[in-house]
Amino acid sequence: MASSGFFTLSPSYILRKPTFILFPIRHLPFGRISASISSSSSTEFKISFAPSPKKVLIPDTSPHCPSVAPLPVIIPWIVRDENGNLKLQATPPVGFLQAISESKSSPTKEKKERALAPKHSKAARRFYNQNVKEPQRLSKVLAAAGVASRRGCERLIFEGKVTVNGSLCTSPQALVDLSKDSIYVNGNRLSKRLPPKLHFALNKPKGYICSNGEETKSVVSLFDDYWKSWNKTNPGIPRPRLFTVGRLDVATTGLIFVTNDGDFAQQISHPSSKFTKEYVASVDGVVHRRHLTALSDGTEVEGMHCAPDYVELLPAQPNVPRSRLRIVVHEGRKHEVRELIKNAGLQIHSLKRVRIGGFRLPSELGIGKYMELKESDLKLLDGQIQSP
After folding, report:
1. Does 302 map to a domain?
2. Mean pLDDT of the chain
């Protein structure tokens, strides 16, 4: 080893395979290196270093200098000043620090989900809605009392035929409490008691229309025998106004719901519920593979392309000469199934709806007959979709 500032390499060291020790360039300040070769076959390097810079933005944290304390890290921030020009500063922006403090103080996603979760069960909430009377919109109260449809009640209000506590009310959105307010429609006082929510499953016969009018062959007219004993079994309660949930055309038979519950009807008929509907169609002639392919491809109905969820050729039955198809759809557009069969090149003979969501038409329910839905039947329709 030479004197201080010089390094001597022996010939034996030179012949060995060199090893390299890599240091980051940022650790080496600028300097000058000079080398000289003497006659004693040894190479000497003279290295002198420039003075260290006054400011170091990146600290020297390499493990080979544990005795040297690391320098603080200075992170430059590029921000815009009041004039919109970019500038360099060593401290974070004020808005950034505020966002960090708010994120730490705000609840986590799990806490938010826990806070949004209902405090009571669905059965408890249903009981509260049915038994605890809160102010409701006037049009909704009139419709629930069986006065007319929601739109019909709004027309009555706009025409000035409804009074609340002796004053004319022309706003359907006015909040009323049936247990406290005195409501008159066409001079007749509205009962303080609302009829219960009724839900029926009907096996619609052919030739009946899904109308709430006074037609003799209306689906609602099939419930005339139900009203004969209403006043005896429900004294003091007005007779509810029934209507169909959705529609079936006059030639289609099968399952249809009849109710006076507007929320129930909205849940079943709204497209967002995605309740599937299953039909059994009898067609003339022989069904080939090309017909099933055309059915699966779908067709345009009311300006929208509609395709069924499921198509199946059912096995032949004895004493039934026509072929039968099982078709499952979820769109529910007008004459959708009939248009699908027509587009496939088949002639439809009869069409029957046998299922809505998870509720299937009972085989023992005869044509033109109805049954009141139980709580277990409503659970099948409570957001559950039965696969085909």
Report:
1. yes
2. 76
